[in-house]
Structure formats: structure tokens, C-alpha cells
Design goal:
Blueprint lengths: L1 H7 L4 H18 L2 H4 L3 H5 L3 H9 L3 H6 L6 H8 L1 H11 L13 H10 L17 E5 L5 E4 L11 E4 L5 E8 L7 H6 L3 E9 L6 E11 L4 E5 L4 E3 L8 E7 L6 E12 L10 E10 L5
Antiparallel strand pairs: 1-4, 2-3, 3-11, 4-10, 5-9, 5-11, 6-7, 6-8, 6-10
Keywords: Ubl conjugation pathway
InterPro entries: F-box-assoc_dom, F-box-like_dom_sf, F-box_dom, F-box_only, Galactose-bd-like_sf
GO biological process, one term: SCF-dependent proteasomal ubiquitin-dependent protein catabolic process
């Protein structure tokens, strides 16, 4: 099927003649005069809606990187807004607010398809794996179960700090995660940061977070560093959410550095400091943050 479609595209006439000139000439000479004079693309052109349906059943990267380059007709079909809007509908990629409409459905589709948490081991289910320990004060970092339920019932573990400052970090290489420089520089998709933290009810504690967007020279392009959060003793020990969205940060971002941590404020031996879990960094479409 694809070979037939490839050959019948108007933009591929010269290639088709080169591949079967002898056979083609004999067929034309045996045809009636009126039929032989008809343009080739009128005989074989494929309606746009049929091409769109074919493209809807192909891997999206093949549509953009292969099919789009075949001829003008295929390029038109691959660029059509209705194709990517329908692809989003079929695969369940919907905006949080139905009243919003993406300015670019193809970009929206690819960002939704790739969207995931770029931080590894965000809940401590694999102990301290994938985290770089920057500070390991008091009785050091450890992981344990929750003292109170998290809003996400799937979260059952957390990182726990001690009486000396405890900080840990991850550095995300965007290219290795599939976000190339062209995407980051031209479209500058939103970068959404979330982090969950909670104190113990019987001990005061503090929490801090720093997130940096870094260029290829390892220089900070933009940063997020809110004030340290303090909890007093005898609190409700509920989970709190820290959220920030980087937007319009300019070209050049190649890495994201995430750092967070804390400690208890009463210098008690053991693990009475801030508790952390469900940290997340996502690359999102602006209408979907």
C-alpha cells in the first residue's frame, strides 16, 4: 500500500518514471487517447482524509520524520491540525480545561506523549538510589513509611531527615530524556516542579528547595529558591505541596538541577526532621500546566 501511495504522489512523478519507464510507456501507448492525456495525479491522487486516516495508524515520529518528506500532498496531511487533534482525542490527551485550545496541536500531542516525571526514585521506594547526597547530617538520610496518608494513595514511602542538615540532588540531562535543543530553544515548553513535604507532629523542622535551569556551559539560566519553610512542634503533620512553573526562560536550557532537604530544629537524635516524597519535574505544554 505504501509503495503505491508513494508512487502516485504528484511530487514523485520523476522518480516513478525512472523506476519503470519502459513498462509505463507500453501501458500508455495501448490506452485510449483521451485516458492517456489525463494527468497522472488525477488518476491516482489520494484524498486528504484517507491519508490522515493512514497517518493516524502510524507511529507519530514516522509521520513527521518520514511521511512528511515524501511529497507536497503528504506534507499537507502530516501538518494538518485535524490530524493531531484527532490523534490527541484517540489517545486520550486532553486539556485540563476544556475551554482552552492549544495553539499547536502537534506540539501538544508530542509533549503529552513524552510527559513523565524526570526525577528518578521520587518516593524513596529504592532507598537513596539515583540521588546525590549533598549533606548527610545528624543520623543521616533514611527512608520509611508514612506517618499520615498522602493525597496520592499510591505513595507509601518517604525520605526522612535528621537533626543535622540533610540535602540531596539530581541533575537531569534533557537531551538524554528526549528533549532536544531545538525543542527547548524554539518552543520553550513549561517546566513544572512539584514537591511534597511534611513535619512530624512532635518536633519542629525546616524544609528548603532549589531548582535551577542550566545551559550547556553548566551556567544557571534561571532559578527557583523560595524562603525556607519552618514548622513548630505540635503541628498537624499534614502533607504540603510546593509548586513552581518555569516559563519563557529563554534559549539554551540543557539541564535541570533539583535540590531539596531539611532537618529538625530541636536537635533530637534519630529522624525527627522534615519528610519528603513524590518530587516531580515535568515538561508540559503551556495550556496543560
Amino acid at each position: 500500500m505504501f509503495r503505491s501511495l508513494f508512487l502516485c504522489c504528484p511530487g514523485m512523478k520523476r522518480r516513478a518514471k525512472g523506476m519503470g519507464a519502459t513498462q509505463s510507456s507500453s501501458l500508455v501507448s495501448s490506452a485510449s487517447g483521451s485516458a492517456a492525456q489525463l494527468p497522472e495525479y488525477n488518476l491516482f491522487s489520494v484524498p486528504l482524509e484517507i491519508l490522515e486516516e493512514i497517518f493516524l495508524n502510524l507511529p507519530p515520529h514516522q509521520v513527521v520524520c518520514v511521511c512528511r518528506l515524501v511529497c507536497c500532498q503528504w506534507k499537507e496531511a502530516a501538518d494538518c491540525e485535524s490530524l493531531w487533534r484527532e490523534k490527541c482525542r484517540r489517545e486520550g490527551y486532553r486539556l485540563k480545561e476544556a475551554s482552552k485550545v492549544p495553539s499547536d496541536w502537534r506540539l501538544f500531542y508530542f509533549l503529552c506523549m513524552k510527559r513523565r516525571n524526570l526525577l528518578k526514585n521520587p518516593r524513596g521506594e529504592n532507598k537513596m538510589k539515583d540521588w546525590q547526597i549533598l549533606e548527610n547530617g545528624g543520623d543521616k538520610w533514611r527512608t520509611e513509611g508514612l506517618m499520615v496518608p498522602h493525597p496520592n494513595e499510591k505513595v507509601q514511602t518517604s525520605f526522612v531527615t535528621s537533626y543535622g542538615m540533610c540535602k540531596k540532588a539530581q541533575l537531569i540531562d534533557l537531551a538524554k530524556e528526549g528533549y532536544n535543543s531545538a525543542l527547548m530553544d524554539k518552543f520553550q515548553p513549561d517546566i513544572k516542579v512539584t514537591d511534597w513535604y511534611a513535619p512530624r507532629f512532635d518536633c519542629g523542622s525546616e524544609y528548603s528547595i532549589v531548582v535551577q535551569l542550566i545551559n550547556g556551559k553548566k551556567e544557571v539560566v534561571k532559578g527557583f529558591k523560595p524562603d525556607t519553610v519552618y514548622f513548630e512542634q505540635w503541628n498537624d503533620q499534614q502533607w504540603n505541596k510546593m509548586t513552581h512553573v518555569f516559563r519563557d526562560y529563554g534559549p539554551g536550557v540543557r539541564y535541570i538541577r533539583f535540590i531539596h532537604g531539611g532537618k529538625d530544629t530541636q536537635f533530637w537524635a534519630g529522624w525527627y526532621g522534615i519528610r519528603l516524597t513524590e518530587s516531580c519535574i515535568e515538561i508540559c505544554h503551556r495550556e496543560d500546566t
